[in-house]
Amino acid sequence: MPQPVFFEDNPIAAPAPPDLTPAERSLQLALAAARTAEDNNGKDVVVLDMRAVTPVFDYFVIATGNSRRQLHAISEEIDHCLEDDLGDKRMGIEGYNESRWILLDYGNVVIHLFDDETRDYYALEDFWSQGVRVKLPWAPEGDESSGSV
Q1: Which residue in 9, 25, 62, 127 has the most C-beta neighbors within 10 A?
Q2: What pLDDT digit, counting tens, does each position of 43-58 carry?
Q3: Domain of residue 123, residue span
Q4: At a CB cut-off of 8 Å and minimum separation 6, what does 25 contact?
Q5: What is the pLDDT of residue 137?
Q6: If DSSP codes are grouped into helix, strand and coil, which group holds residue 67?
């Protein structure tokens, strides 16, 4: 099957080479989800490396959307990227109908999409402050997120 043109512009979302370790694969999925959120106008996109904090998952991806419609679009595009383009399988989704906090569970990568108020209230970056922020390869030097947190 030919690769979509999307991969030419976004090497983060390229199919995984067969020799990736599980940790490298998790990072690839987390960065692809973060980039997809940002490409769909998500703001304050953050990736947290949680491997030293919990054995349950490897990465959190956290992003904020401005509206219910935008949060739906971001979650659907992340699903498309991770499932269709990268061949991963979502294990669960929560909060889609309410659209204040949508959680996409990809096993080793957990994606949290918030509206502004809910993100401020739950402050996951503070609650999970032991997690290490991952430098986003496309972010300006010295910036670990795509926006201010």
Answers
A1: 62
A2: 999 999 999 999 999 9
A3: 43-133
A4: 16, 108
A5: 93
A6: coil
- 149 Cα distance to chain centroid: 16
Quote the pTM value.
0.83
Sheet holding 92-94, edge to edge: 92-94, 101-105, 109-114, 59-64, 43-49, 132-133
- The predicted-structure confidence for 13-68, as pLDDT tens digits, reads as follows 555 566 789 999 999 999 999 999 999 999 999 999 999 999 999 999 999 999 99
> Measured between alpha carbons, how far apart are the two ends of the chain, in Å?
40
Q: Residue 7: is its pLDDT beyond 80?
A: no
Distance CA 103, CA 63 (A): 11
Give me the number of domains the chain comprises: 1
Residue 19: count of CB within 10 angstroms of its CB: 6
Residue 74 lies in a domain: yes
Instruction: Indicate which CATH number applies to the domain containing 110.
Output: 3.30.460.10
Closest CA to 27 of 120, 121, 123, 136: 136
User: With left for phi above 0 and alpha for psi between -120 and 50, is residue 107 left, alpha or beta?
Assistant: left
In the block, residue with structure tokens 């659209």: 99
